[in-house]
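Researcher: I'm preparing a figure for a lab meeting and need a structural model of a single chain. I don't have an experimental structure, so a prediction will have to do for now. The sequence is pasted below. Please return the structure as C-alpha cells so I can convert it later.
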Amino acid sequence: MLSTKFKKLRDTNILKLCSAPISNSFAKILDVGCGPTSYKFFKSLYKNYVGLDWIVPADIIQDLNKNPRLGFTDNYFDVIICTEVLEHLFYPDKVILELKRVLRTGGIAIISLPNEQEIWQRIGMLLGFKFKKGFDDIGGHRWYGNVDACETFVKKYFKIFTKKYVGFFIDGHFADRYGALVPWCLRESMANLRPNLFARQTIFYCIKN
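Model: Understood. Here is the structure written out cell by cell.
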C-alpha cells in the first residue's frame, strides 16, 4: 500500500504538471486508477473531472484487467492522468493505446511508473526479501525494470515533454524498516542524481502528437 505522504506528494506533483493545460476549469480530465484520495482531491477542483477505478469512490467502476476498452469517443479528453496503474495490468499496452485514443491531439497525458530496481529493492533481495517476477502476491505489480525501461515503454505511445523523478518512499516493503533514516530532501536529490538507483517513481508529462 502507498503511504499517505506519498499519495499527497503524488497529487501535488500532478497538479503542478498539469496546471497549465487545465487552467480552464471546464477542461475534460480523465483519471485512470484514481483511488479514493486522489478522486476526492481532484473532483473538488475541476468540473469535468472523471475518475475511473475498480473500487469506489469513482465516477466509473471498471476493472481494466477484465475490460481494457474505455467507453469514450476518440479525442474526447484534454488531459489524462494515469499514475501507478499500468504496472498492475495484465495488458498495459492495450490500456495505454486506449488512453491515447480518447485523448485529443495536442492533449496532455500524465503517466507514472515505479522503478522496480531502485536501491531498497536491490538491498532487500540481497538480504533475502522476496521480490517475484510477474505479479507478486501483495501489490500485484508487473515488473518493468528500471527508469530507462519505463521511459522506453511510454515513448512507444506518447511524446515525453518532461519528467520528474520521485525519491524512494516508505511503501510497505524493505524501506519501511530503514528508509526513514534518510531525510526526504536528500532522497529527492539522490533520485535526480542517479534515477535508476535512487528514484522510486518517474512521472512523465506527455503530449499526444
